[in-house]
DNA sequence: AGCCCTTTGAAGGCC
DNA sequence: GGCCTTCAAAGGGCT
């Protein structure tokens, strides 16, 4: 198993090493990249705005009018934001060998009505929270309060599955100590956020530690009906409750996913876009435009997420969610459906290899922003 | 209702 | 070890 082969150290993030970008002329390239990103974002935005204008968006014209300034403002803000982060993390993970603990501690009140941890947060609270918040807030539920140096609920030997061994990582308490004033930019909308404390019974880890990675088998985590104790059972779910199913433990988010969670709202606000596919494209490009240090922040976060996940669910394997087809909305897909999906994907790939049917979005991409969009 | 699209990264299986 | 596949989030679009 890969985990085993990681050398047994506490570095579960062996794979979190930074992607080696071109070293040659890197700075220049980075600058060009940023400049390009601006241009490119403008292209994408304007094409998308045009498109939405056509499709009767009443704000589209106004958006386009304020387009240039807005974009400029956003990029500046973005840089300031990142600068701020860098400053906050000065002496952080790459300067200090022993990572002193993350400055992640502004605890947003998850119970505030406007908090983006609300079920509808991603739809409504488009402008907010990301600033001044840090993704690691999501780790708060696993602070010292829950984690004693040797969690009593964790067996010394985690291996329960044959061939599965998820080693016990080092004392995490150091990671989750709460340095005074250590306020990062935590987005409460990120997966492992304090609101997970409100998880219903199905979101409760057997150890008693609630975890957002555990979602009811009936649906996507993002629906978050368990939020703030305001959970009201939809009929369908009430039905399903009759036949108890195993709670779903989701994969921990990787660095890019964490980045997306944090930045999505910003991009949506700035670009007046909602289509996730387009947003994700922009985010993907921005991700590449980040400096190594900036990316490192997210790799580190992701590493910690994995560590926690591993400690909480030592026997969990990513494979667990494969055949169950648990990522679907219904969450109750049959193996047959899963097989179908697999086949479809294979066929799709074959199609693309043989110049088969292309997605509408791919077509749109090429029409909207020809060569530039695909660069970086 | 449920899948698709789109992104990157992690993990697991297969050869 | 390299390659391939699946899943993680998100939400509009499409069937």
Automatic annotation (TrEMBL):
<dbReference type="GO" id="GO:0000981">
    <property type="term" value="F:DNA-binding transcription factor activity, RNA polymerase II-specific"/>
</dbReference>
<feature type="compositionally biased region" description="Polar residues">
    <location>
        <begin position="47"/>
        <end position="59"/>
    </location>
</feature>
<protein>
    <recommendedName>
        <fullName>HMG box domain-containing protein</fullName>
    </recommendedName>
</protein>
<dbReference type="GO" id="GO:0021903">
    <property type="term" value="P:rostrocaudal neural tube patterning"/>
</dbReference>
<dbReference type="GO" id="GO:0030901">
    <property type="term" value="P:midbrain development"/>
</dbReference>
<keyword id="KW-0678">Repressor</keyword>
<dbReference type="GO" id="GO:0000785">
    <property type="term" value="C:chromatin"/>
</dbReference>
<dbReference type="Pfam" id="PF00505">
    <property type="entry name" value="HMG_box"/>
</dbReference>
<dbReference type="InterPro" id="IPR013558">
    <property type="entry name" value="CTNNB1-bd_N"/>
</dbReference>
<dbReference type="GO" id="GO:0010456">
    <property type="term" value="P:cell proliferation in dorsal spinal cord"/>
</dbReference>
<dbReference type="InterPro" id="IPR024940">
    <property type="entry name" value="TCF/LEF"/>
</dbReference>
<dbReference type="GO" id="GO:0060847">
    <property type="term" value="P:endothelial cell fate specification"/>
</dbReference>
<dbReference type="InterPro" id="IPR009071">
    <property type="entry name" value="HMG_box_dom"/>
</dbReference>
<feature type="compositionally biased region" description="Gly residues">
    <location>
        <begin position="1"/>
        <end position="11"/>
    </location>
</feature>
<dbReference type="GO" id="GO:1990907">
    <property type="term" value="C:beta-catenin-TCF complex"/>
</dbReference>
<keyword id="KW-0804">Transcription</keyword>
<dbReference type="Pfam" id="PF08347">
    <property type="entry name" value="CTNNB1_binding"/>
</dbReference>
<dbReference type="GO" id="GO:0060070">
    <property type="term" value="P:canonical Wnt signaling pathway"/>
</dbReference>
<keyword id="KW-0010">Activator</keyword>
<keyword id="KW-0879">Wnt signaling pathway</keyword>
<dbReference type="GO" id="GO:0008284">
    <property type="term" value="P:positive regulation of cell population proliferation"/>
</dbReference>
<feature type="region of interest" description="Disordered">
    <location>
        <begin position="1"/>
        <end position="71"/>
    </location>
</feature>
<dbReference type="GO" id="GO:0000978">
    <property type="term" value="F:RNA polymerase II cis-regulatory region sequence-specific DNA binding"/>
</dbReference>
<comment type="similarity">
    <text>Belongs to the TCF/LEF family.</text>
</comment>
<feature type="region of interest" description="Disordered">
    <location>
        <begin position="333"/>
        <end position="376"/>
    </location>
</feature>
<keyword id="KW-0805">Transcription regulation</keyword>
<feature type="compositionally biased region" description="Basic and acidic residues">
    <location>
        <begin position="19"/>
        <end position="43"/>
    </location>
</feature>
<feature type="DNA-binding region" description="HMG box">
    <location>
        <begin position="249"/>
        <end position="317"/>
    </location>
</feature>
<keyword id="KW-0238">DNA-binding</keyword>
<dbReference type="InterPro" id="IPR027397">
    <property type="entry name" value="Catenin-bd_sf"/>
</dbReference>
<keyword id="KW-0539">Nucleus</keyword>
<dbReference type="GO" id="GO:0007507">
    <property type="term" value="P:heart development"/>
</dbReference>
<feature type="domain" description="HMG box">
    <location>
        <begin position="249"/>
        <end position="317"/>
    </location>
</feature>
<dbReference type="InterPro" id="IPR036910">
    <property type="entry name" value="HMG_box_dom_sf"/>
</dbReference>
């Amino acid at each position: 198993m890969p985990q085993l082969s990681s050398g047994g150290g506490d570095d579960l993030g062996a794979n979190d090493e930074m992607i080696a970008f071109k070293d040659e002329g890197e700075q220049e390239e980075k600058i060009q990249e940023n400049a390009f990103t601006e241009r490119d974002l403008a292209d994408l935005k304007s094409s998308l705005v045009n498109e939405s204008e056509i499709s009767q968006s009443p704000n589209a014209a106004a958006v386009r009018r304020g387009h240039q300034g807005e974009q400029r403002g956003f990029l500046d803000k973005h840089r300031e934001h990142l600068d701020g982060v860098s400053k906050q993390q000065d002496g952080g993970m790459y300067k200090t060998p022993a990572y002193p603990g993350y400055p992640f501690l502004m605890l947003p009140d998850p119970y505030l009505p406007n908090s983006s941890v609300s079920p509808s947060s991603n739809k409504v609270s488009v402008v907010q929270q990301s600033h001044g918040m840090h993704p690691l807030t999501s780790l708060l539920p696993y602070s010292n309060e829950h984690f004693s140096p040797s969690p009593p609920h964790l067996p010394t030997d985690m291996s329960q599955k044959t061939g599965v061994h998820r080693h016990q990582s080092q004392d995490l308490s150091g990671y989750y100590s709460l340095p005074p004033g250590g306020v990062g930019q935590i987005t409460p909308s990120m997966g492992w956020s304090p609101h997970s404390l409100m998880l219903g019974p199905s979101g409760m880890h057997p150890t008693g530690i609630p975890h957002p990675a555990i979602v009811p088998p009936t649906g996507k985590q993002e629906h978050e009906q368990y939020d703030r104790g305001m959970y009201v059972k939809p009929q369908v779910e009430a039905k399903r409750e009759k036949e108890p199913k195993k709670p779903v433990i989701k994969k921990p988010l990787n660095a890019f996913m964490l980045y997306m969670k944090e930045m999505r709202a910003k991009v949506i606000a700035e670009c007046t876009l909602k289509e996730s596919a387009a947003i994700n494209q922009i985010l993907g490009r921005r991700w590449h435009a980040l400096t190594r240090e900036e990316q490192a922040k997210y790799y580190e976060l992701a590493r910690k997420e994995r560590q926690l996940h591993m400690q909480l669910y030592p026997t969990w394997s990513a494979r667990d969610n494969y055949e169950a087809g648990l990522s679907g909305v219904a969450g109750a897909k049959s193996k047959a459906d899963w097989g179908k999906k697999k086949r479809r994907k294979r066929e799709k790939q074959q199609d693309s290899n043989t110049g088969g049917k292309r997605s509408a979005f791919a077509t749109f991409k090429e029409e909207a922003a020809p060569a530039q969009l695909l660069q970086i």
